[in-house]
Amino acid sequence: MGREEDEERAELRRKLEALEREVGSLRDDARRWRALMEARDISVSLYHPDGRPRDVNPGWEKLWQTPAAGFLASSFNALEDRETERSGAMRHIERLFRGEEVALPPMFYDTRQVEAVVDKAGVAHWVCCYGVPVRDADERPRELVMFHFSVPEGATIQRKYEALFEEQQALRASLEARNLELERTVQLIEAQRDAIQAMSIPVIRVGDGVLCVPLVGMIDDARAGQLLERLLEAIAAQQAAEVLVDITGVPALDAQAAAQLLKAASAARLLGAACTIVGVSPSMAQTLVELGVELGALTTAATLAEGLAQALARRAARAQPSRRPGRRAPPGRAGETPR
């Protein structure tokens, strides 16, 4: 019996010591919690799982300059707070009330804009917030604890941000105005370029069914394309049968430019117009011979006057009615029937 009693006493002593240690730990936790809830430089607030405030410490009152009694008796709900929604932090608060620990990014919060705050007390602050859920035995959130810390440099950051934003807006407006001005300038340049192109390759009507295209300057690929386009449009519009391409003002004619002229003459023939190149100088003719360029498919003339005379002659020849071969009429007076 004595041995069993000793063992029971020892077991009870161990349990008592474990219980004392647990109570001591709980007392330490209670003291720590009491220290937090009595602190004046750390804002601590407790909330029910449905979002209603449960308790706040003096640090909360000091930070937000709002009476605790009025706030706790108000209809404020953390899950329906418009200021939190405006700052974009509501998704973090919702995570907290679902049982997650959260750290909110710095945000600007103005308690004076909260309708539930009594007499619109309070102040605006840049703050950081940390949220911790307190769980029950079933690991469900029993209450939610929020710690708020003022961020004094937040106001400076906000002012710099606003100044940068205004500068950005002004720069954007300036760029938009500049872009509009550039668009108008580009449109003006394009209109002037079109006008210059039209003037650089004029198509002149010099006779009935006869067109003249005087060229001045070098003939590159761009001008050759314009020549072909304007020439074909004019032939189709005026039903021209003769085209004179005057190259008197062309300083030099190389193999590529000659090929472009041959191409234009071939296109004109497809539309029923004969093409004559006028103004070929002796030096230009010598250069083309040295390059091996053949202009045999083209009709040429030394001067514009000569080319115009040839074109008008061909035009007149085509206009005369053709006479069918047959026996010559016998001599006699006009209208007399031979016997």
UniProtKB/TrEMBL annotation:
Keywords per UniProt: Coiled coil
Annotated coiled-coil segments of the chain: 2-36, 165-192
Domain (STAS) ranges: 200-311
InterPro entries attached to this UniProt entry: Bact_StressResp_Reg, PAS-like_dom_sf, STAS_dom, STAS_dom_sf
Pfam families: STAS (PF01740)
Superkingdom per UniProt: Bacteria
Keyword Coiled coil attributed: yes
Positions of the UniProt region annotated as Disordered: 315-339
Protein's recorded name: STAS domain-containing protein
